[in-house]
Specification:
This protein is an alpha+beta fold. It has 13 helices and 23 strands. It has a single domain, classed as Penicillin V Acylase, Chain A. It catalyses: an L-aminoacyl-L-amino acid + H2O = 2 an L-alpha-amino acid.
Length: 555
């Protein structure tokens, strides 16, 4: 290999694999026969306190022979090593490629003994390299597992959702330790009529070794557990992947499995039998890997699932004292605290404040790949994000989602990430009233995009027949317009909120405008104070006697 080729490959690799971070994420999964329209859907909340929400793009490219790709750890940017570059790579927008293959993840850590500091392939690089090289979910699984076999696995335990337009799989993987290259792993296909989820806890239990059509696994998956003494059973058929490599602890149930439960119980009321388990009882029966929902799941169902704060359950975050006067379903980190020698937990819901970006990858097998794959993409907290349609065939990223348009330490008024954080952070401190203004705007925008996609599909199909070369440019233009206009509308919403709720008051409105007295001055605003429930909590706290207004004595 010539040095000039080597250096060129290094430079390009560094540009493509800039540092990101994704910790403590949530994935929701819907098979094609479980969805209302026949599409496969998977969601992803990339939750990290250091992740800037942008939309990555890897253009399709023919590379030629003899080139090397330098792999950088996705979380830190640290260079890990080199692997041969593929001769051809596919167009990737975010977590989906032009062939309607999508990959997402959640990290569970697992056995620390199995980390490999010499491995080259970290979990983030596996995702985006596999997307550039795979035309199906099965091919992506083979690509990922071959890469860790040949070059070593650098990350800790991980669950991947790997989907295409026809099927969806969960792949769980952890390294073999510093003395063995590669990883132990198992992949299970989720039935078409089922839904599943994972959220930072290994979820695969028994492995159906004989089901070659719906199960793949590393040949050493049981042997390694035996070597470390994590499995001592006589028969491999009784082996439990989760018990061996990521045994339950309180945090893995309360902060992780509870999120899966909150999604499942929306479609199966029988899931309440697992309440004790997800609240932290490791001796209770675990939840299944997947369930058959009691109704067909819509795109809007998945959006609502991503915005879940345990509403209507014993874990509801608006019911405990931490919710405060405005029923806020958020808790600042750390997740536990101690008082008088007793430790308490803050709930960890699917929707959380530290999210970088969110998405729903929707794969539709009745349409050509250029049109069928949609990445419904948004930034920041799923609860206050607006999911905009990004077709996986587009050839450039809208300005508001573009890398370099702001970052974690530089605010930008044209960055969707910063505009959504601005609005969300206002709402976190006055949640209940502000959400009454935020939710209608969010719902109206997303409903309009549902209609827009139908019209866009129809027009794009006509272009495919008459002028196929223009399809990608057309879709790119539609996506750019939608994303940038959404960001502008959210900025307008933020301006409205800060004016309306300034200083704890609420300005009066009339005919869609803030009310004035006719002489250029606003009328006196409302002083809503707090709820009666909140006032009662203060009065009954036992620490409010100094606030009591004395009764005047009768003369």
């Amino acid at each position: 290999m010539k040095q000039i080729t080597f250096l060129g490959a290094c430079a390009l690799a560094c540009a493509l694999l800039l540092p990101q971070s994704s910790e403590a994420c949530s994935d929701l999964i819907v098979g094609k026969k479980a969805s209302a329209d026949g599409s496969v859907m998977i969601s992803y909340s990339a939750d990290s306190h250091t992740l800037y929400g942008d939309l990555v793009h890897y253009p399709a490219k023919a590379w030629g022979k003899g080139l090397m790709l330098e792999v950088h750890e996705w979380d830190t940017g640290k260079p890990l090593g080199f692997i041969p570059q593929a001769s051809v790579t596919y167009n990737v927008i975010g977590n989906m490629n032009e062939h309607q293959v999508a990959i997402t993840e959640s990290t569970w850590g697992g056995r620390k003994e199995l980390s490999d500091p010499k491995g080259i392939m970290d979990y983030g690089s596996l995702i985006y390299i596999a997307l550039q090289r795979s035309k199906s979910a099965r091919e992506a699984i083979r690509t990922m597992t071959d890469l860790v076999r040949d070059y070593g696995y650098y990350s800790s335990g991980e669950s991947f959702t790997i989907a295409d337009k026809n099927e969806v799989w969960i792949l769980e993987m952890i390294g073999k330790g510093p003395k063995k290259k590669g990883a132990v792993w198992v992949a299970i296909r989720i039935p078409d009529n089922a839904i599943s989820a994972h959220a930072n806890q290994a979820r695969i239990h028994k492995i159906p070794f004989g089901d070659k059509e719906n199960c793949m696994y590393e040949k050493d998956v049981v042997k390694l557990a035996r070597e470390y003494g994590w499995y001592t059973g006589k028969s491999d058929k009784d082996f439990d992947f989760q018990k061996a490599y990521n045994p339950y602890e309180f945090s893995g149930l309360r902060a992780c499995e509870a999120r899966v439960w909150s999604f499942f119980r929306t479609f199966d009321k029988g899931m309440d039998k697992y309440t004790k388990h997800i609240q932290g009882d490791i001796n209770e029966e675990p939840m299944p890997l997947y369930i058959v929902p009691d109704r067909k799941v819509t795109l809007d169902d998945v959006r609502r699932g991503m915005r879940n704060h345990y509403e209507g359950t014993p874990l509801s975050m608006t019911n405990d004292p931490g919710a405060g006067a405005y029923k806020v379903p958020y808790r600042w980190r750390p997740m536990t605290f101690k008082v008088d020698g007793k430790e308490y937990v803050n709930e960890r819901a699917i929707a959380t404040q530290q999210t970088g970006f969110v998405l729903i990858a929707q794969m539709r097998n009745w349409l050509p790949d250029e049109i069928g794959g949609i990445l419904w993409f948004g930034v920041d907290d799923a609860n206050t994000a607006v999911l905009t349609p990004m077709y996986s065939a587009i050839t450039s990223v809208p300005e508001c989602y573009r890398r370099g348009n702001g970052d974690m330490t530089h605010f930008s008024w044209t960055s969707a990430f910063w505009i959504h954080n601005w609005v969300a952070n206002m709402a976190y401190h006055r949640y209940e009233p502000m959400m009454q203004d935020i939710r209608p705007v969010q719902t109206a925008l997303e409903s309009s995009y549902d209609a827009l996609v139908k019209a866009t599909d129809e027009y794009a199909l006509e272009l495919m027949k008459n002028d196929p070369a223009k399809v990608k440019d057309y879709l790119t233009g539609v996506c750019s317009k939608v994303a940038n206009e959404t960001t502008a509308r959210w900025k307008q919403l933020g301006e409205y909120l800060i004016v309306k709720y300034m200083d704890g008051n609420v300005k009066k409105e009339k005919d869609g405008q803030f009310e004035t007295n006719g002489y250029g001055q606003i009328v006196m605003p409302n002083f809503p104070g707090y709820s009666q429930e909140y006032y009662e909590s203060i009065a009954r706290s036992g620490e409010a006697e100094h606030l009591v207004v004395p009764k005047e004595e009768k003369k």
